[in-house]
Amino acid sequence: MNQNLTTDRQTFATHLECSITGERYEADQLHGLSRAGRPLLVRYDLDAVRSAISRDTIEARPTDLWRWRELLPVRQTANIVSLGEIETPLVPLTKSGGPNVLVKDEGRLPTGSFKARGLVMAVAMAKELGVKKIAMPTNGNAGAALAAYATRCGIETIVFCPDDTPEINVREIAMQGARVWRVNGLIDDCGAIVGKGAAEGRWFDFSTLKEPYRIEGKKTMGLELAAQFGWKLPDAIFYPTGGGTGLIGMWKAFDELEKLGWIGSERPKMFAVQASGCAPIVRAFEAGEEHAERWEDASTVAAGIRVPKAVGDFLILRAVRESGGQALAVGDPAILKAVEAAAKQDGLLLCPEGGATLAAYHQALNTGLVDEDDKVVLFNCATGLKYPMPEAPQALDRTQPIDFDAL
Amino acid sequence: MNQNLTTDRQTFATHLECSITGERYEADQLHGLSRAGRPLLVRYDLDAVRSAISRDTIEARPTDLWRWRELLPVRQTANIVSLGEIETPLVPLTKSGGPNVLVKDEGRLPTGSFKARGLVMAVAMAKELGVKKIAMPTNGNAGAALAAYATRCGIETIVFCPDDTPEINVREIAMQGARVWRVNGLIDDCGAIVGKGAAEGRWFDFSTLKEPYRIEGKKTMGLELAAQFGWKLPDAIFYPTGGGTGLIGMWKAFDELEKLGWIGSERPKMFAVQASGCAPIVRAFEAGEEHAERWEDASTVAAGIRVPKAVGDFLILRAVRESGGQALAVGDPAILKAVEAAAKQDGLLLCPEGGATLAAYHQALNTGLVDEDDKVVLFNCATGLKYPMPEAPQALDRTQPIDFDAL
């Protein structure tokens, strides 16, 4: 039906590189972290891409994630495992945001979150490279996306999540065919279990940035933005930052697009948004550090960004600094207030992490980091329907006379 | 950004017609039911549309609901109220369905359900026609869509829902700025309250098919299918049928597309899917009746199709019969089994009403109403995330030695 999913197209991945040493690794092989213990980045023959296709080629294709095939690592069309990865819409947030504020509503992706982008790519590559069993630590949404895609192509999955992960996420993961375990700890405690099992050869470790292909999937957020903005980029991007894969991925996307000559050298200011109760990147940014220390006693309503230690910390910090942006922390009250404002004023139900970006935008506006004329994109990383909402207790007894004036 | 939302385009609505008497009503006026108490249908100057645009015109536009502007009733671009009404993807259901089974995943629309299609149109028309206050009875999803769009353009809304409506729906409605009341009754009991207030001039009645524009929004499901299938249509459509607006709307869409010369005269078999615990259309279909009696003591897990009495009953029955399809009832156990099969085998989480269409498909296959070679579309009308899922209680104590073999 969708030609992106059925047409054989060349991919131009040539090799992978260690993100810290530049050491080269072979393409089309199974990889975890580099020998230096850092994420691997996929590299492409961009000169060849430029000769093969143009922006018009892309625009003539159906507008989904797979239209970017030449800039993605999957070789065989048959290995694409898809649940319908649409291009997510940009929704104006006129009243609670401002006249130039757009929300990229990632809650419209399969399994209701932007985790689908990374996992659809990583699972397709796992399929291509013959992986039979995958394990992953998750705060919820990544596990759900992994479960859905892995189930769809017959790969076995085991998922570990903190024991306070919302019930809906845990059930969704199980419903979609994964074995899911609640662990009395945080996501990095879960990650330690996954790592131990992987070291024993029990499964492949799908932790954030520990396999190289999730970032290629998340990269499509940047590619899409470029196309949606007519091959320019917005002035600022506010991105809820836990592991930071998406921020790193977008920064990589912009670089590749410039090398292709499809965009110019201008870049958005990148704002890495964290919660005050778990803000390791903000602390490192402010201290001028290249790496971020683990954040102890992490706590926030925005569970998706409750990541005490990110393996790609230096890549996040580097992108934010190069862009002229900042790392910003917002408190839980501001997050909840922003979620309510967007819903009650603009009819858009954000997730708490999306609310954090709206709160951070107002903070940046108040402190002059951006101004009202700036074209701004906030990332709503998941559907607000997955998160608790306030009670609405009003009831009416229809067997009694109804006082219409009181309704 | 999206030119569909910013470009002024001509619309070709000429008038409305009573669906039972054919009596003519003026366009661009506020209407409820016809004088005969039946739904009004919007009519277009299709000859003029044919002269003005072609299939290529449509295909060159962004793929959202508003690309169909010439076949929609909204006159002024400024009255479009949008939360990003994307074209919903077709997702193959290979294992739990079959090689030719596609799910149209309507859960990707704003507020997570296909109700967004009808309500985005009805609210835009309400805005265009100066409505200030709207009331509606709902089983949940329609109320959420109404709340979101009405809030977005500043129209006041009051929503009444059965008191066993899932908590998530009630909270979503309230969160998005509507006043919501739980009523000790079913949706038609709620409808009676809305009707009474409307008769007193307190608000405008947005009940299913009681205002004429929701059907025009739902019609876009049929328009999209035609475009997605390359201007042919699938062999069969399984549609979860409560009020039936979508089924009626698709049938109208196919008729308009044929008159435009954009599709031929072939039609899918239309299967109206109901739950065994609330199957008024099935009973009327089997009895050869033109209208359906109210179903007493309605009960099903698929609350969205728990509609005891549909004001458009005769339009549903007429479309199903003309198409050579059938009205089919499936039991709650079959519905839940189908939801589980789609999730566990294909990684796609359906809503119960979507599960009902999968169960009905297998029933139709077993009884020879369709065969495996038929290209089939099942409508998943909402994201499965809005519905209860089984518990997943497994827990792991990380402070104790972990038995990896037992994971």
From TrEMBL, chains A, B:
Keywords tagged on the record: Lyase, Pyridoxal phosphate
CDD domains (alphabetical): Thr-synth_1
Molecular function per GO: L-serine ammonia-lyase activity; pyridoxal phosphate binding; threonine deaminase activity
PROSITE patterns: DEHYDRATASE_SER_THR
Biological processes per GO annotation: isoleucine biosynthetic process; L-serine catabolic process; L-threonine catabolic process
Named cofactor requirement(s): pyridoxal 5'-phosphate
Residue ranges of every copy of the Tryptophan synthase beta chain-like PALP domain listed in the record: 81-381
Name used for this protein in its record: Threonine synthase
Species name: Sphingomonas aurantiaca
